[in-house]
């Protein structure tokens, strides 16, 4: 269907513009079709978080702006858009402006290779997983630049904490992705999902038992917890320890510059959640064959919503960790566990009991 739309547009525009214009225009249309719903999801995730935590704490949450508080994210966006962006006098102005851009850019660019169905992706490239690892690792530069350019001890200390934490858990997440790469035999995100729909249990109709979460359960748990740390979410949000360093690397930011850090954080939550679904929970595949009449994009959306809600559940449940506990968990527990499981899966694949043939 997408190819038919592309061919129709090419035929329609062929007599008006040069042949090189339509492919560029088509790429821009696809980018808008991905980014607009994503921005909507990011905005309303803030409302869902406040509602979910309110439910956990036996209160209502936002309910004043619009019916059931549904217009609260729009009111927040308008407020932030109209606030003045104040640049501190002693700040490095160029880098101060660059910090939020460097933070949000990788969070949005990573969605270029996320498939929403078979062959439905902005760029269905063969090295999609490699692209994701490369582009998401750039985000740490935005955090460091923002902290350093603010010329504030609080911001700089927060940036150091955040960057050390992000680098620590990126290693464990990287090993998790390597294990998935081993069992899938491909870096293409679509191929990784489709490989989870094969096997004896999938043939019997119990597709959810053939997904990667079951044989790779320790890796799935490490990935999810590392995702919490990577996005600086509770209980790993020592970057924003109110009693110590106020708001961390973004303490000197205001208005939309401040909002860009939060947009990046919530976009990353959606990204980590949809990656967990694609890599471990079968993507758009139905849990049982009997439910295959439901469109794949609905399954993908529902699974992603459940995973992202678990982020909020964790925030409402656990106390904040100390910084030394966070570093110990990343370096002394998660990295050894993923390395051991990497070797175990590698050895398993060389035996007659290999379930990923």
From TrEMBL:
Swiss-Prot/TrEMBL keywords: Cell membrane, Membrane, NAD, Oxidoreductase, Quinone, Translocase, Transmembrane, Transmembrane helix, Ubiquinone
Primary location class: membrane
Keyword hit for Cell membrane: yes
Main enzyme class: translocase
UniProt-annotated location(s): Cell membrane; Membrane
Keyword Cytoplasm: no
Bilayer-spanning residue ranges: 24-47, 95-114, 120-146, 167-184, 204-225, 266-285, 297-317, 329-349
Subunit details: NDH-1 is composed of 14 different subunits. Subunits NuoA, H, J, K, L, M, N constitute the membrane sector of the complex.
Protein name from the UniProt record: NADH-quinone oxidoreductase subunit H
Species name: Polaromonas aquatica
